[in-house]
Design goal:
By secondary structure, the protein is of the alpha/beta class. It folds into two domains: 292 residues, Rossmann fold (3-Layer(aba) Sandwich); 96 residues, GMP Synthetase, Chain A, domain 3 (2-Layer Sandwich), CATH 3.30.300.30. The protein is built from 15 helices and 25 strands. The strands form six sheets. It has a nine-stranded mixed β-sheet, with helices on both faces. Strands 4-3-5-6 form a four-stranded parallel β-sheet, sandwiched between helices. Helix 8 links the parallel strand 9 and strand 10. The longest helix has 17 residues. It is globular and about 70 Å long.
Length: 516
């Protein structure tokens, strides 16, 4: 099946039901479908061919979401651009991945001249929310095109989307995802999170990231997509109650902000069935708090752009271990491998490891990308020994639950010992005054690297570095206790909410000839 076929299944299932809600605006599945056909005809009338690349640059927005569907209906490859990326990063992504067409929101008016100069291969621009200079407003542009659009066939290994990789270790790479990749992701999702009634999905995290991925299997179920412009904690809590949201995804950092909000217990969350968290490790203490407030609805997935979203799954039932000392460890797990995606632990020589042995998490199967766009070297490097290499260090327990120990690049070697920051971060997160933290290695003449913690406190809280170190020493012992602690007003984060350890680490390694 083509990726757009899953949306069309939702149209058949729930034709008059609400498909998109954005503030006071609402479109049914039938109305949304007609718009996607007209967008596809507009693209084809302007010379766009199947497998050419169409980008959408916008904050969360109903019309921008419809443009994504229109790109797919035209047989083009969708390129999501995160609205919170830097301008230079987005220009690099557009140009290096040969973008051919671009829909954009007027909030990026000031950037458009630089985008035209930096990505000269783009052949057409349409502004989704109003006329902008020489670029037409989407609604005016659509007046020249009718529905339906012709059926554009696609092979399973045709590229449905080119997703920018996270870029946490260098410049972003274009991850080529096929229709078969998305079909596998959707199959994994539906195997674990199906619903007899059309769900209500809240898109609060960027629609270019996991929130947009989750939309496709839910659209196939006839789900309503409630769109809010950004991940504001209060707006999210209000939307859950107002729209009786059943499903949403948020990164842990946003969940932490919700838990710290003074009104977090003022709303009704009984409609929730799946509150999905992913993209970064989550404090097990804060996870227990989330379960107590939101109910037995927390669910974790593990994936990355190269094998999207659902390599593993930790169900709400798997979270039902609070108060059971022999099983509470599972709250630090990302779940067991999903039914359509093998996940194993591998050493540096390509050997698969047994229970409780740490190594690199590897995946294979139809969920794994076709490759990196115009980058065969990186593609080959990521797929040695016949498996996709995630760059994450992890282990499996005897029951098959996968635990992410850390990113390979984040491991600290201090005095010859391998120390994993995530273990230390779990302890610091449990301190009642801590909102978030990052543990890194910094150069040290005696140890080679020394453990350093950078801490962001909750609003109005105060705690000294010595108190944090004493708190860690009591729970971790001397070797894993940070040698130094700094309190920062705010930790740097990526456009999708991940703490940027490379930016935290950089000032401490200036002038060092080696970074280990």
């Amino acid at each position: 099946m083509r990726l757009i076929d899953y949306f069309d299944r939702g149209v058949r299932r729930n034709p008059q039901g609400a498909c998109l809600i954005d503030g006071a605006r609402s479109l049914s599945f039938t109305e949304t479908s007609e718009c996607t056909h007209r967008i596809a005809n507009g693209l084809m009338a302007n010379g766009m061919q199947p497998l050419q690349v169409g980008a959408v640059l916008s904050p969360n927005d109903m019309d921008a979401f419809t443009c994504i569907l229109g790109i797919l209906r035209a047989g083009m490859s969708w390129m999501p651009l995160n609205a919170r990326n830097s301008l230079d990063d987005n220009i690099y992504i557009l140009d290096s991945n040969d973008c051919d067409w671009m829909f954009y929101h007027s909030s990026f008016d000031k950037d458009m001249d630089k985008i035209r100069q930096g990505a000269p291969g783009i052949k057409g621009f349409v502004c989704v929310d109003r006329a902008n200079g020489d670029d037409p407003w989407l609604q005016d542009w659509l007046k020249g095109f009718s529905a339906p659009a012709p059926y554009i066939p696609a092979k399973p290994d045709d590229v449905a989307a080119i997703w920018p990789s996270g870029g946490t270790t260098g410049r972003s790479k274009g991850v080529m995802l096929t229709h078969l990749n998305f079909t596998t992701m959707i199959a994994n999702f539906c195997a674990y999170m199906h619903d007899d009634e059309p769900p209500v999905h809240l898109i609060a995290a960027p629609m270019t990231h996991a929130a947009g991925s989750i939309a496709f299997p839910l659209l196939a179920m006839g789900a309503t997509q409630v769109i809010v412009p950004r991940a504001d904690p209060l707006a999210i809590m209000q939307a859950i109650q107002t729209h009786r949201v059943t499903t949403l995804f948020l990164p842990p950092t946003v969940i932490y902000a919700m838990l710290a909000h003074p009104q977090v217990r003022a709303f009704n969350y009984q409609s929730l069935k799946y509150f999905i968290y992913a993209a970064a490790p989550m404090s097990s203490n804060k996870l227990k708090e989330a379960i107590a407030i939101f109910g037995s609805v927390m669910a974790q997935t593990y994936g990355q752009a190269e094998s999207p979203m659902l390599c593993t799954f930790l169900s709400p039932q798997d979270h039902d271990v609070v108060g059971n000392p022999s099983l509470e460890r599972r709250l630090q797990s990302c779940g067991r491998p999903t039914v359509f995606t093998p996940v194993e632990i591998m050493d540096d020589e390509g050997n698969l490891l047994g229970p409780e042995q740490a190594g690199e998490i590897v995946t294979r199967g139809n969920l794994v990308m076709k490759g990196y766009y115009n980058n065969p070297e990186a593609t080959e490097q990521a797929s040695t020994f016949g498996w996709h290499h995630t760059g994450d260090v992890g282990l499996k327990d005897a029951d098959g639950f996968v635990y992410i120990v850390d990113r390979k690049r984040d491991m600290i070697i201090s005095g010859g010992f391998n120390l994993y920051p995530s273990e230390i971060e779990q302890v610091i997160w449990s301190h009642p005054s801590v909102q978030d933290c990052a543990v890194i290695g910094v150069p040290d003449e005696k140890w080679g690297e020394a453990v350093k913690a950078v801490v962001e406190l909750k609003t109005g809280e105060s705690v000294s570095p010595d108190e944090i170190m004493a708190f860690c020493r009591e729970r971790l012992g001397g070797m894993k206790t940070p040698k130094t602690v700094e309190v920062w007003a705010q930790l740097p984060r990526s456009a999708v909410g991940k703490v940027l350890k490379k930016d935290i680490r950089e000032p401490f390694w200036v002038g060092q000839t080696r970074r280990v």
